[in-house]
Amino acid sequence: MTDAPRVSETEASTTQASTGEPLVVLSDVNKHFGDLHVLRDINLSVARGEVVVVLGPSGSGKSTLCRTINRLETFESGSITIDGQPLPEEGPALARLRSDVGMVFQSFNLFAHKTILQNVTLGPMKVRKTNKAEAEARAMELLKRVGVEQQAQKYPAQLSGGQQQRVAIARSLAMNPKVMLFDEPTSALDPEMINEVLDVMAGLAKEGMTMIVVTHEMGFARRAADRVVFMADGQILEQKKPEDFFTNPESDRAKDFLSKIL
Ligand code: ADP
Ligand code: MG
């Protein structure tokens, strides 16, 4: 396939290892939806360059956690900092935060009436005030990196789901985010397209991108995660290296979860 994602050896060799310095820090975060206590005393620290995979049954609060980190949701108590800065409430500081924290959802949310290239250049031109030529050059580089540069002049509906999700990743990367959040990025894809998206994500992980990934793809968790965070009922029940989590889950909820999916 000429259209496959790839990561060049030179890119991979510039890998920055995790420095241990915290980039995303949640301390005692609590959130309710009405009576539902959806995030309970969440403490999570993600180091620069670290890849954290969040696992847990449906309804455990994984999406809410991602949305709270990107301030798409508010929270009632506790604190969240990105690169040492508390999450801003609103205004230009919030727009800046959103561009520092890339997010890729299950649904690709590309602008249907814009070309693939325009989808990727829009954010940098509007938010970062990058000029068109520069934004386009960078967009083509990113589209190449995720393996869809041939599709630059097409519209989203002309692409497969896997290609659209790779464009969505390129679009996030165009903002030069400090951290990327992925919320079940392959759940809406036909099975044969899942790996082309996971391969792009694994490449990013290898290059040192800080990532928080909600997924049901256990193979990806095993190969790409530095740490697995297991959530149930709004709580983090376990945080471990993948091999420890998969071979030696401690909580009953985690054992139950693994028995159903493995
Ligand atoms: P997960 O992503 O782990 O499946 P979610 O974060 O989507 O879990 O949801 C956690 C809980 O919060 C679920 O019980 C869900 O029904 C509820 N919930 C999510 N979003 C909202 C909302 N906007 N309003 C009310 N309840 C919500
Ligand atoms: Mg979810």
Automatic annotation (TrEMBL):
Pfam families in UniProt: ABC_tran
The keyword Membrane belongs to this UniProt entry's keyword annotation: yes
Principal location: membrane
Keywords: Amino-acid transport, ATP-binding, Cell membrane, Membrane, Nucleotide-binding, Transport
Catalytic activity: a polar amino acid(out) + ATP + H2O = a polar amino acid(in) + ADP + phosphate + H(+)
Membrane topology: Peripheral membrane protein
Protein family per UniProt: Belongs to the ABC transporter superfamily.
Name of the protein: ABC-type polar-amino-acid transporter
Taxonomic path: Bacteria, Bacillati, Actinomycetota, Actinomycetes, Micrococcales
